[in-house]
Amino acid sequence: MSEEVTYADLKFQDSSQTENIQKFDKFEKEEPPVPSHVWRQRALALTLLCLLLLIGLGVLGGICMEKLNTLRNFKEELQRNMSLQLMQNTNSSQKIRSLSIKLEEIATKLCRELYIKNKGNKCKPCPEGWMWHDDNCYLLLSGYQRRKTWQKSDEICSDYNASLLTIKSKSVLEFIKSLKLINYWLGLSPRKDTTKYNNLDTIISFNWFTRNTSVISDEMYCGYIYYPSFFYTECTDTKNIICEKLAQSVKIESILMSEVLDRRK
Ligand SMILES: *[C@@H]1O[C@H](CO)[C@@H](O)[C@H](O)[C@H]1NC(C)=O
Ligand SMILES: *[C@@H]1O[C@H](CO)[C@@H](O)[C@H](O)[C@H]1NC(C)=O
Ligand SMILES: *[C@@H]1O[C@H](CO)[C@@H](O)[C@H](O)[C@H]1NC(C)=O
Ligand SMILES: *[C@@H]1O[C@H](CO)[C@@H](O)[C@H](O)[C@H]1NC(C)=O
Fold first, then answer.
1. What is the CATH number of the domain that holds 171?
2. Would you say the CB of residue 89 lies under 6 angstroms from ligand 2?
3. What is the number of domains present in the chain?
4. C-beta 160 within 6 A of ligand 3
5. CA of residue 206 to ligand 4 center, whole Å
């Protein structure tokens, strides 16, 4: 049995060896025809394809980069143009602003000339019946019926969006002197003591009333003008009223309008 197996094994080994040799022989004989030029052709084709793809990618990439660069340049130019435009716009609006300020100054000057010639000129930046001096408008309310206590007078001026007369500059002082006002309340701060006589020229340095800072009672003394002086008297006395308020700005249209009206006369 063991002998048989050994033999068989040997036989098998033998045959497999010969088979191997045979196969090897066969392999050596059959190998050359299959790969040689077919495989080489295929490899070449693949290499070419790869090369082409690479070139294509390169070209595409180049085109893309070019496009990107163009876009980036365009964007930068646009940004430059926009910031330039913004600067020009700012410059323009600054120019317009300074021009309109200048125009308003000219209009005010012109209107002042017209006002000097004719106090009723329509360009006047004050309401009807008010006088114009510097930047202020002034209203006189006089006569026996219209005389009021200081407090009432202050309220009346308030109703006009105005306040009682103040004299805080040399220019206003000269203007008020020219009016030669007799018995008009002043917007001086009421005080607890009276004073005898005050020259109008000293009035600029006096305390002027500001709403809600002074408490007014019946025992206080209020200032009034009696050209060429001013005095303090009981605030419950009755006197004429002069109100003041800021003038509006002169409108170009109002000057043109007044010129047209003047020509028609
Ligand atoms: C930028 O401005 C210049 C000159 O004003 C103009 O020629 C150009 O077309 C502008 N560029 C863009 C992107 O708007
Ligand atoms: C704007 O004005 C300034 C001077 O005020 C000037 O230097 C600048 O060149 C102006 N810019 C433009 C875009 O006009
Ligand atoms: C006072 O000012 C108010 C608000 O500004 C306004 O409604 C009113 O008409 C003005 N009165 C006078 C007399 O100007
Ligand atoms: C100022 O006084 C008036 C009445 O005299 C009052 O109604 C107002 O509340 C006061 N304002 C302030 C800020 O004190």
1. 3.10.100.10
2. no
3. 1
4. yes
5. 24
Q: What are the strands of the beta sheet with 221-226, ordered from one edge?
A: 182-185, 221-226, 229-234, 198-199
Asked whether residue 9 carries a pLDDT value surpassing 60, the answer given is no
Residue type (1 letter), 229: S
Residue 205 is assigned to a structural domain of this protein? yes
Tell me whether residue 117 is in a domain. no
H/E run at residue 140: strand 136-141
Q: Within 10 A of 217 (CB to CB), how many other CB atoms are there?
A: 8
pTM reported for the whole predicted model: 0.63
Q: What are the pLDDT digits (tens) for 120-176?
A: 888 889 999 999 999 999 999 998 889 999 999 999 999 999 999 999 999 999 999
Higher model confidence: residue 62 or residue 214? 62
Note the pLDDT of residue 10.
44
Ligand 4 centroid to 212 CA: how many Å?
6
Core vs surface per residue 36-49: b (16+ CB within 10 A) or e: eeeeeeeeeeeeee
Q: Give the mean model confidence (pLDDT) for residues 58-85.
A: 91
Q: Which domain holds residue 144?
A: 131-246
Ligand 2: centre distance to CA 91 (Å): 6
